Amino acid sequence: MPILIPTNIYNKLHSTIYAYFFLILFDGIFRKWLLPSLSAPIMMLKQVAAIIICLIGFKYIKRMTRWEISFFFVGIIVFATTMIFGHGNLIVALYGCLPYWFGLPVCFFIGKILTEKDLNFFSKVIIYTSIANSILLIIQFMLPPSHFLNYLGSEVREEIAYVSVSELASAFRPAGIFIHHTHNSLFSLLAFSIICYFLFFKVNRLNKKVLITTCILDILACFCSASRTTLILHIAVIIYFLFIINKQYIRRLFKYSIIGISLLLLIFITPIGQKAINNLGQRFESVAIIEQGNSNVITGIVLEIISRNIEYNIQALFFPQTLDGESIPFWGFGQGMSTQTGGRIMGIDKNAGFALAEWDGLRTICESGLFLGWIILSIRLGYVLRCIPILKKSINTSNYYPIFLYPTIFICFGLYFSWGNLFIANFTFFITGYFFTTLNKNI
Hints:
The chain is mainly alpha-helical. It is 69% helix and 0% strand. The chain contains 19 helices and no strands.
């Protein structure tokens, strides 16, 4: 037992963390296929688990850092400003403040509770789930959007309903076992990072052929997902790995690269492989022309990355406006208003999740105002950036697991993915707590 709390309480907390993990991982399976009529309650279950973890943790684990404490009290402040100066809807305000009250504390408590045995278990579950998810996504790619396996919880436009996804150039993006392709992007990135770690450093823990096969399936599924975000994140992480891998593993890297590239080339000359490349290529080309006005695909990609990640966030931080061009009140419009759930509760039926902003940096500023928004984003980014010096110590002690997990954590804490989405928020908090555990435990 890693901390001194009563055994029965520790067991309850430990079991709740396991439930939390599985509620996040298999959320889409229940909401899409098993119990679609109960989608909203199922969506909330993982948040309920997070609240239980915090309520138990607050009682028995007193020494949180200033980061968790600061975020918690900021949540109280923005709740008050929402009720006094913002939209004033109690339910939406409570929903919008969940990440502040039960976000960073969950990361902290999970990092204190999990053991090496838990890390091994969760790693294997993620790897084997990745196999099933990749195979399913590849199958979904060959089916029309109207097929039962491609159900995403909403109606499909009639003009594309019965056309194979492989012919749609990203007009429809399959999501595997998840409810949304963005959720699949984050899981795929996490799984790919864990697979690479085991291939290079712990290949004796799992069958090497299984790991290589899982990696190949993940990359093929990445192309079949028709998601630019998924592909770009994979490429960015591969470049990151090349920089941080120790020289002693270069031979292993070269060997796996030869095997992987050879197998991928064989796959990509098959009909499904060619369709995956053509489909994603058309997606990149259409975006380059429509969004950036540039017929050169590479230039269009670069311009879009700059636009989404640099220009957009500069605009959000220094010259914020809503999507409709409206100025931001000093105290903001109020928490939860620009989330899908909050928007629907407030009667915003059209583009409920984008009532104020599309990505999370601007969403935070719009809901909280410029002053409090800056404080929130400073804590959020500081929380993940403070880990960089710690990672250097991990390299010195040959503990590479947190090094491989860090890109997923960094991206989840960035200003792109929305914490207003319960899956993304709770995925972020669980995997961050998992990351904290790896800093002190070398599996």
